[in-house]
Amino acid sequence: MADTSDIRNGLCINYNNDIFSIVSFQHVKPGKGNAFVRTKLKSITTGKVLDNTFPAGHKIEVVRVERHKFQFLYKDDSGYHFMNNETYEQLAIQESMLENPQFLMEGGQVEILFHAKENIPLVVDMPSHIEVQITYTEPGLKGDTATNSLKPATIETGAEVRVPLFINEGDYIKVDTATGAYMERVKK
């Protein structure tokens, strides 16, 4: 059991029957009254962020987590299948644990956060961006580069993104996996 003096950014704790990561903290010693620690906690399972204040010396339960690199293999009825890059062990993850699974590419790399004691997956961290090829979009016209208009385009993962008018079928683009937004065209 740890206490509030052990709090640091990135530490994972068990709080209200959920696992939270400490985003930020501040030790406060007012002139009058007892010291306390003001924290911002982010739930690993739901992503919800909350502010909490712990009195100085309060006992906290530290949860040890491990990050492992996995490669996405395929999707079927039992979920999304990943392979550990070091042990070649395969793992099936339910779609509810993935954020924006439409941007997963076969062979793509992800990081999976595991509860070290129970060895259960907690969350799948997607890469911040992917480089993909446009498989279908309406052709661009000469002079379409002057406006900031966007058109729908289908990428090789099957997802639909909005791209500038000058992007054509067969072009490679960089897509932000968190928002699904077009970032830039990539030369391949």
Characterise the protein shown here.
The protein has 188 residues and is an all-beta fold. The protein folds into three domains: 2-62, Roll (SH3 type barrels), CATH 2.30.30.30; 65-125, OB fold (Dihydrolipoamide Acetyltransferase, E2P) (Beta Barrel); 130-186, OB fold (Dihydrolipoamide Acetyltransferase, E2P) (Beta Barrel), CATH 2.40.50. It is built from no helices and 16 strands. The chain has strands at residues 2-3, 12-15, 18-28, 36-43, 49-55, 59-62, 65-76, 79-84, 90-93, 109-115, 120-125, 129-137, 150-155, 160-164, 172-176, 182-186. Strands 1-6-2-3-4-5 form a six-stranded antiparallel sheet, with no helix packed on it. A five-stranded antiparallel sheet has the order 9-8-7-10-11, with no helix packed on it. It has a five-stranded antiparallel sheet with strand order 14-13-12-15-16, with no helix packed on it. A hairpin with a 5-residue loop joins strand 15 (172-176) and strand 16 (182-186). The radius of gyration is 22 Å and the shape is elongated. The model has no long low-confidence stretch (mean pLDDT 89).
